[in-house]
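Appendix B, Record 12. Input sequence as logged:
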Amino acid sequence: MKWLGQCPDCGGWNTLTEEVVAQPTKAESKNAQKSFTDFTSEITPLDKASSRTEPRIPTGIAEFDRLSAGGLVKGQIVLLAGAPGIGKSTLMLQLAGCLAKTQKILYVSGEESIPQIASRAERLGVKNANISLLSETNIERIIEAVENVSPDILVVDSIQTVYHPQFSSTSGSISQVRECAGEILRLCKPKGIIVFILGHVTKEGSLAGPKVLEHMVDTVLYFDTEKDNVLRLLRPHKNRFGSTSEIGLFKMTSSGLEDVQDASAYFAQTSRAKKLVGRAFSISAEGSRPILTEVQALVSPTHYPFPRRIATGIDLNRCQMLLAALEKHANLNLDTKDVYVSLAGGVKINDPALDLAVCAAVISSVRENMISGGSVFIGEVGILGQTASVGALDRRVEEARRLGFDRIYVPIITGKDIKKSSDLTEIDDIVSLSLKIK
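Logged structural output:
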């Protein structure tokens, strides 16, 4: 605070030098030494930037490769979210076992000890020296382990258990999840390390933590189940390196998850040889996969002032719209009847191609007319009673042919288009269907 000519320690004269120290701002003080890694590059003109196509790394699991367009890309960050106990850790350990044949893997768990992971691996038949296990929740030690091991693939199970030591908040909080995921991204992206981050979901089914977590990663996968808790559905909600319309099907067994190659045989489990009232078949499409879907409808007299409308597996609002169209254009009286519509197998499908099957099943239940098990209904229905074509019709018809259907009900224009196609002449009978059924 004042001038000194003599040093108070050594007694020397004119040996002191003034240095101006800049006081950091509150924001700089708060964020000082928070990040362990850097993620930066030099400024590069677009015309000089390389745009090489990275080779795909197949996982060895057919259903997962379907979602990832043939395999993983170096530096890809994958976020896998699902309810507790649905099988996220099992899927990751099976993926690690398949990828370990050619890749070096570091499996970090913040929820299980190493003996617990080893016990699950033994049950799944996973044993490979290329898989390294680490039970840790401190992001600083995880980064040190990645630097020491130099893996090709990193698995973090789960991001809600990892914490940043320089943040006072508890693990799983918004700031902890955001910063820990950011540290992993900044570390692995430049090195080309593929990262699988496992995350929890809330009771509403959305991903727990900040929404920015979904924006930071390249791929967001949701692991879901259906009503009998046996079939697992893997749906991509974001995919920078593939399609978001595909779906992966797995079946949980005592030895782990198994691929469901023939989805049509799984969802349509009842016999088609017998005619039933209120049942109609359709071919829905999840991405490039056609799936045989069984639509069931039950129309019964109501004992309440307001009839009930319940839909399982399809959108209730769309189902109500179809019922209104049937009342208006097919002269069906449904104002004194309860209507229940369900998709067999417990699957949830949002495909307008099911509209025609829903209408056929409801008409069959109202008029007690049996529908042949060899008939399939494919088409969209509008509120004015008109039918419209749907996409990927050639694949849907080919799947119906493979399953042995001999009669296909399609919109009129679509029927004309199919008859002109020489590739579909093996279908025995293609007819057109109008909603105005006598």
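Residues 25-29, 420-438 have pLDDT under 50 and may be disordered.
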